Amino acid sequence: MNSDWLESFLIFSDTLNFTRAAERLHISQPALHVKITKLSEFIGKPLYQKSGRNLQLTAEGLQLQAFARDQSEQTNNMLKKLRSGTNSEEVCLSAGEGTFLYLLGKSVPVFKKRSSAKLRARTGNQSKVISDVLSGTAHIGITPMETSHESLISSPYTRVGQIVVMPTTHPLASKRKLKIEYLQGQSLIVPPEDKPHRILINRLLMSAQIDWQVAVEVNGWELMLHFAKQGMGLAIVNEYCKVPKGLTARALPEFPSIQFQLIKRRFGSTRPAIAELEEILFSHKESWKNEHRQR
Q1: Looking at the predicted structure, is the pLDDT value of residue 211 above 70?
Q2: For residue 95, what pLDDT is reported?
Q3: Reduced to 3 states, what is the DSSP secondary structure of residue 117?
Q4: Second-level CATH architecture of 3-60
Q5: What sequence ranges are listed for the domain HTH lysR-type (predicted)?
Q6: Model confidence over 64-120: pLDDT tens digits?
């Protein structure tokens, strides 16, 4: 396979725009088109297709994009090592902001201390994390996931329940566990309507015929907890959240727990640093529970 075609395809696949990709490569748009066409003919499969006014990669294009990124990383790492004599290897981990803050608090410092490779973190929602791993942008992802993907290897990481957080002076704080019916008439701090957590809250409370009001609409666990501390309402959050002083957390068993998965690309890079990060992540996957036993 022509390495020049592969490098050009990688730039194109990141932009999905021939004009911008050609500018980055400092070649003409027709010249880039010829390279992508030749690569497609060599593979024997179309690598991209039109979707309305935009372009999108085919399944084969996505696989080739990740392969090309692996090849580019290995080449760049080797050249830097030969020139400088130092390890410039980089490992990328993709996860949600809350996952980095609360689930991976132990793992990241351990990897930093133990490995000579640099760790690059990318944050995003579930679809972004999956996209990062599929494209080869990230080597490992941690995200809530209940279904499998044919191009990914997913391994159960940890399961996280739901809690209700409220001021310690709130009447419900005296109960050890909460039933969903206790939320009747309460004001809740919730994410915007298009967010998965809000959709879950709406569905479960509607199914239980619970009437409730929106106290504050805000995105992010930290802000939800902040407004709860100000007494503006109750917040239903993942149990991995660190509850600030002055607030009480109570389990909400009738809300489903969330299964987090560690995902990596099938047939992806198996460099030692990636395996090392994976081992560290798994060895500390339940550490967040130990930090919350005092709750």
Answers
A1: yes
A2: 97
A3: coil
A4: Orthogonal Bundle (1.10)
A5: 1-58
A6: 998 898 888 888 777 877 777 766 688 999 999 999 999 998 899 999 999 988 999
What CA–CA distance (Å, rounded) separates 252 from 178?
5
Res 164: pLDDT: 97
Torsion of CA 37, 38, 42, 47, to 10 degrees: -20
Provide the 8-state DSSP code for 32: H
At 277, phi and psi to the nearest 5? Answer: -65, -45
* Residue 181 in tokens: 């019916």
Task: Give the tokens for residue 177.
Answer: 């566990």
- Is CATH 3.40.190.290 the right assignment for the domain spanning 162-256? yes
Q: Residue 12: enclosing H or E segment and its boundaries?
A: helix 3-15
The pLDDT score that the predictor gives to residue 245 is: 92
50-60 pLDDT, tens digit each: 988 899 999 89
Residue type, 152: L
Residue 217, both tokens:
């609409």
Q: How far is CA 79 from the centre of its chain?
A: 30
